[in-house]
Design goal:
Layout lengths: L2 H13 L9 H24 L7 H17 L23 E3 L8 E3 L2 H15 L8 E8 L2 E8 L2 E7 L5 E3 L2 H4 L15 E9 L2 H14 L7 H9 L4 H5 L4 E10 L7 H10 L9 E4 H15 L7 E8 L2 H7 L9 E5 L4 E13 L5 E12 L2 E7 L3 H5 L19 E5 L7 E5 L24 E2 L8 E2 L6 H11 L12 H9 L8 H4 L2 H5 L4 H4 L6 H13 L2 E3 H7 L7 H11 L2 H10 L5 H8 L6 H12 L1 H11 L3 E3 L15 E5 L7 H10 L3 E3 L8 E4 L5 H9 L2 E3 L1 H8 L3
Parallel strand pairs: 2-11, 19-20, 21-22, 21-23, 23-24
Antiparallel strand pairs: 1-6, 3-9, 3-10, 4-5, 4-7, 7-8, 10-11, 12-13, 12-15, 13-14, 15-16, 17-18
Helix pairs in contact: 1-2, 2-3, 13-14, 19-20
């Protein structure tokens, strides 16, 4: 890379994070170059490929930043500036159509201030006072694909996509398959270009994706992608099989006017046989527009199709003509966008899911709504306190508003974060909505669902008799950080768990699968997804995992509060499975030498220790673990011990302040020399290293007669070892 290329790359990287009013000329130039490339790529993905790569919010942010930089540095505006472009160039797969009247995009408004400024700009341009009457039409902004339909003498002769605004794609054959698009008109002007949006309803979208999954076809992220991908098919037969709809809301070339007003023209289109949106209304002033916006937003989830805002247009067509156009947008219209990551919808049900630790997790089943470019039908409700409108300490959240089935709820989604319920609208709560009563029994097995003091969730007490826990534990058992058996993932676990001929109901069953199947592979090789070759490979992968490190085995058991790091610590301390098993069998929670030894391990607290002991002493759980271990060769967790180490095999406790090395460094050095480092003093402690400020640990060591040395003594002891 040349010096100039490096400088350009550095400027782009630097400029991207700098406020516009602080950019230097060089940074601004580089930033405009980056934005042009990113916006251009986003336009191609969205308009030409029907596969958007970024969210609407991210795209809008890029456009806003580009406009702000161009406003501050007008001399740097590029010839290929995104602010001068509409859509994307048409695909080479379709014939080209040049629009007689350009198809433009709309300026965006994101809040009430933007709407007020839009109104003020129009009044200034027209010379109207603030109190002069000025009527607008407002209509939902349909989230679909723009389409222009040309009628000559009442017959549909051509249909074209927007393309880059000047040239679009000829999709006439496809448009003729859409039921909402009339092929002939009675009483229409000699030349009439009707413009509108092709879209897909939520119900049709869900049904299409279900069919695509069954046939192995492409599924779509949202109805807009599905509609665009369906209309832009080279084979019109595919479009015919897709449930597309069309709303008319504008026009292009006309041989005679449709009306003197926007509202009247839309009514004329409806009279000619086009579907027009019933939420279109004529309103006066900004306050009327904002009231309409809030009303449409509140009704959004019940519409059955996606909208992403409300479009405002000056109603008087003579005023529209006076206002005219900018390079890519009309002055007389603006799109008031909904917040990209928020939407209101109806909570239709609350389901309870049971995880591998027995936790009962409430899930909201929602009337489908598009949030951040993704259709959302489920959201987390966290726990029973969150549903009740309180936090873990009993304090109010959402000002104490609880959540009930039938409520209108606000859904929040950002990036790949799991959708969440943010708020509830009490003004729209059904009169018969009842407070949600969290279940006291497991919905899967009927066992008691208990909530321990200090715990935010209820847990099923059924253990292995609970099928939900058993399945989730098995999925964890074969996960990447655990046994990681190739060919045996979550999907296969679900299949085997439900199987009556070759069931896998606990981990030990995995290692008896081959023996139960038989040498001829007859039982498994005839299943969907399994042939003789894949069956043999699965059995080989299982055999390879019979020998397993102790740490991986401990993690795979799915013991609550024991993660990968904790499993590694426990394995290092006990070394072998028999040593761990004997200690856990003999241990008593809160007392005795085994307990002291366990909680004395650096990194192990009382919660983890209690969970380990409880698991290993629960009869059914222990029997299942014993059956598993009988099938395995558990590798010893060995330490690499420096030759001649004076502390190999000893248990050491560090306490007080170390002045010549950090506590972490001292611990690492001790472990490298083969010692075990504990966090508390017990009868099994061999040595205490006490620095200034040592308190109860040093006193306990003295009481127990345990050797205690200072930091200098420790350094002298290990010397050059």
């Amino acid at each position: 890379m040349s010096d100039s290329e490096q400088e350009k790359g550095a400027a782009i990287k630097q400029g991207a994070g700098i406020a516009v009013d602080r950019l230097t000329t060089a940074e601004a130039k580089a930033e405009l170059s980056r934005l042009a490339a990113e916006i251009g790529a986003a336009n191609r993905a969205y308009h030409a490929e029907d596969a958007p790569e970024i969210s609407d919010a991210a795209y809008d942010a890029l456009k806003q930043r580009n406009a702000a930089i161009e406003a501050r540095f007008p001399e740097l505006k590029r010839a290929d500036s995104p602010s001068g472009q509409v859509g994307a160039a048409p695909s080479d797969g379709f014939g080209k159509v040049r629009h007689a009247v350009r198809m433009l995009s709309l300026e965006n408004a994101f809040d009430e201030t933007d709407v007020a400024e839009f109104d003020q700009r129009i009044r200034r341009f027209l010379g109207l006072s603030d109190d002069a009457p000025l009527a607008y039409t407002a209509e939902p902004k349909i989230d679909g694909l723009s389409l222009s339909l040309r009628y000559e003498n009442g017959a549909l002769v051509q249909a074209a996509t927007r393309g880059d605004g000047e040239v679009g794609e000829n999709v006439t054959a496809n448009a003729l398959t859409i039921a909402d698009i009339p092929q002939t008109l009675a009483g229409a002007p000699e030349i009439l270009e009707v413009r509108g949006e092709v879209y897909m309803s939520h119900a049709d979208f869900a049904a299409l994706n279900a069919r695509q999954e069954v046939t192995g076809g492409k599924t779509f992220a949202n109805p807009r992608n599905a509609a665009a991908g369906s209309l832009r098919q080279l084979d019109a037969g595919i479009t015919r099989a897709r449930p597309l709809r069309f709303f008319a809301y504008a026009w292009g070339e006309l041989s005679e006017p449709l009306s003197t007003t926007q509202h009247g023209a839309i009514a004329r289109l409806a009279g000619l046989g086009f579907q027009t949106n019933p939420l279109t209304d004529r309103l006066d002033g900004v306050e009327g527009l904002l009231r309409h916006y809030k009303d449409v937003e509140a009704r959004r989830a019940a519409l059955g199709y996606d909208i992403d805002g409300v479009v405002y247009k000056v109603d008087d067509l003579r005023l529209q003509e006076r206002l005219g156009f900018r390079s890519t947008t009309p002055r007389w219209a603006i799109a008031h966008k909904f917040p990209a990551e928020l939407a209101w919808t109806v909570l239709e049900a609350i389901d309870i899911q049971v995880g591998r630790t027995g936790a009962l997790s409430p899930v909201a089943r929602l009337r489908p709504v598009t949030v951040g470019g993704v259709v959302v039908s489920n959201a987390t409700l966290h726990n029973e306190d969150y549903i009740a409108g309180r936090d873990s300490t009993g304090g109010p959240i959402r000002e104490g508003r609880d959540i009930r089935v039938g409520d209108w709820v606000q859904v929040y989604r950002a990036g790949d974060v799991i959708p969440k319920i943010k708020d509830v609208d009490l003004s729209r709560r059904p009169a018969d909505a009842e407070p949600y009563v969290f279940p006291g029994v497991c919905p899967e097995c009927g066992s008691a669902a208990l909530r321990e003091p200090g715990d935010a969730v209820r847990r099923c007490a059924g253990g292995l008799i609970c099928p939900a826990q058993a399945v989730e534990k098995l999925k964890h058992f074969v996960s990447r950080g655990a046994f990681d058996i190739e060919g045996l993932g979550a999907k296969q676990i679900e299949m085997f768990f439900a199987d009556d001929l070759l069931p896998i109901r606990e981990p030990a069953d995995i290692f008896t699968l081959a023996a139960r199947d038989g040498a001829n592979l007859a039982k498994l090789a005839n299943r969907d997804g399994f042939g003789e070759k894949s069956t043999s490979k699965l059995f080989e992968a299982i055999e390879e995992r019979r020998e397993i490190p102790l740490a991986r085995l401990l993690f795979a058991l799915g013991i609550r509060h024991l993660g990968e790091a904790g499993a590694s610590i426990i394995a290092s301390h006990y070394g072998t499975w028999p040593a761990f098993e004997a200690a856990m069998t003999a241990a008593r929670i809160g007392e005795g030498p085994e307990w002291d030894d366990l909680v004395g391990i650096d990194g192990v607290g009382a919660v983890m220790a209690s969970s380990l002991i409880t698991t290993m002493q629960q009869e059914a759980e222990r029997a299942s673990i014993d059956r598993l271990v009988a099938q395995l060769e558990v590798q010893e967790s060995r330490r690499v011990v420096a030759e001649g180490s004076p502390v190999a095999g000893k248990t050491i406790v560090f306490t007080g302040t170390l002045e010549k090395m950090s506590r972490a460094e001292a611990k690492a050095r001790a472990e490298a020399l083969g010692a075990k480092v504990a966090g508390s003093v017990s009868a099994k402690t061999d040595l205490v290293v006490a620095g200034p400020g040592a308190g109860s640990k040093a006193k306990k060591a003295t009481d127990l007669g345990i050797e205690t040395i200072d930091e200098d003594g420790w350094l002298a002891l290990i010397g050059g070892a």
